[in-house]
Amino acid sequence: MEEERKNNFLEEIIEADLAAGKYDSIVTRFPPEPNGYLHLGHAKSLCINFGLAMKYGGRTNLRYDDTNPTKEDVEYVDAIKEDIKWLGFQWAEERYASDYFDQLYEWAEQLIERGLAYVDDQTLEEIRVNRGTVETPGVDSPWRNRSVEENLRIFREMKAGKYPDGAKVLRAKIDMAHPNMMFRDPILYRIKHASHHRTGDKWCIYPMYDYTHGQCDSIEHITHSICTLEFDIHRPLYDWFIETLGIYPSHQYEFARLNLTYTLMSKRKLLELVEKGYVSGWDDPRMPTLCGVRRRGYTPEALKMFCDRIGVSKRDQLMDIGLLEYCVRQDLNERSNRYMVVSGDPIKVTLTNWEPGKVEWFEAPLNPAAPDGPKRRVPFTGELLIDRADFMEDAPKKYFRLRPDGEVRLKYTYIIKCNEVVKDADGKVVELRCTYDPTTHPQSGQWRSVKGTIHWVSTAFAREIECRNYDRLFTLEDMSLVPEDKDYKDFLNPESLVVSKGWAEPALLGDPGEIAVQFERVGYFRKDPDSTPDHLIMNKTTSLKDSFKL
């Protein structure tokens, strides 16, 4: 019997809160910044936030952290929604930080009136230097003791557009000697004369993340604000704003973010790969974006299985991408249709005892997991193609594919024997002349066992396709360990995409393409959106087998 899964630390916290009557129900949120596409790290966060709400009968809001108009775009807003729906989640309310700009501004004026915020004329570089270090206290700004009246006047002038970008900022007035650097008078507002994708030109001052996030959670009565571990140092400031303003006491909890071998999750670096043409776009199947892995053929079910297996912890760790690929195979093995496809450098097989012009049709299951389910019809003729890897002229003893004078079964059909090897002028094998045993028909003949079974296609019915064989985008296992004298792009894998031809049985062209299919004995492939009726393109999702062990 499968061992019951223990609660993770977030589930323990929520169950304790509910048992104590702290909340009637829980409310979580997923707060992406619309400055890029969601990636696999976001998938983990989505599964946690939506999964916890679903488990405990709560709800999850989608709230865009849209406080930086120069980097945000409606394209990203729409793509994020599409990705969340693809994963199978539905948010309770769609919100934006910009929905609360008026309230955030009002609270900022309240802080000024209470002597807890001031306008600073220092440059960002001066502010950085004067903040001090973890060993030394910061230095007060020369403008730290402006009067309340002056701060209110200047802040309102900032809002009215009187000053250029970078001229002034609004800072909280806390403690320039605080051991937590976040408390050394953090910046609340900066001037940005930039049009916002929702508010247009209404604002030319925009709130900072640390000032915005907790208050937005509070407005929405988020009970459990779940962030990745790098935000744990921000939590005391998150609490300070809420307590100082006397608003709904949302609370933040942190979990370890997803780090994956041979993968980068930095939006900034992923954007650079797109903009400089190292990949074809955000949805390039080598990218760790959700639209990229979707195009490659990963399924929502596989991603959820992966997130469940890696669990939720408070300790950073590097997860093996092999586990993700294992989950993809586990899901596709149960559901994908099967077809035979021969690689782009095949060997012709001629059956010398086959009746010329004869075509025999065999029925094969679309999915062996459902043997009584739909079938596909496979044409068999006297001239076939097989993978070059399935023949060896000087084969070792335990080689069970085709060899001179050897026998194999052609999958779903007859046993054949290789009688003659034909080579071209360069000595390359170009044809195998074989005979088939008509008594070994799988449905009506006599059963005879041979150790090897290989796949094939009929030359007359085969359809040429393009295969895009994808591999890992980077060659360095842990991309956080890029040496200081190197650029992360130095570790791009030159073999991450290899394009080849293939020859497919005709039934493949009629597949609906909803999920990846299995090329028998090869791997899983998904139809690419670039395909046309005359040119089928298949993206390799993952290999059929791998060395990864649970």
List the SSEs and their pairings:
Blueprint: H1 9-19, E1 27-30, H2 40-55, E2 59-64, H3 74-86, E3 94-96, H4 101-113, E4 117-120, H5 124-130, H6 148-160, E5 169-172, E6 187-191, E7 205-207, H7 209-219, E8 224-228, H8 235-245, E9 251-255, E10 259-260, H9 267-275, H10 290-296, H11 300-310, E11 318-319, H12 321-335, E12 338-339, E13 341-343, E14 347-351, E15 360-365, E16 375-380, E17 383-386, E18 407-410, E19 415-423, E20 429-437, E21 453-454, E22 457-458, E23 463-470, E24 497-504, E25 517-519, E26 523-527, E27 537-543
Parallel strand pairs: 1-2, 2-3, 8-9, 10-11, 12-25, 14-20, 18-21, 23-27
Antiparallel strand pairs: 4-5, 5-6, 6-7, 13-24, 14-17, 15-16, 17-22, 18-19, 19-20, 23-24, 25-26, 26-27
Helix pairs in contact: 2-11, 7-8, 11-12
Any overview of this molecule?
Helices cover 25% and strands 23% of the residues. With 550 residues, the protein is of the alpha/beta class. Helix 2 (40-55) packs across helix 11 (300-310) and helix 11 packs across helix 12 (321-335). The longest helix is centred in the N-terminal third of the chain and has 16 residues, at 40-55. The chain is elongated, with a radius of gyration of 31 Å. The two termini are 18 Å apart.
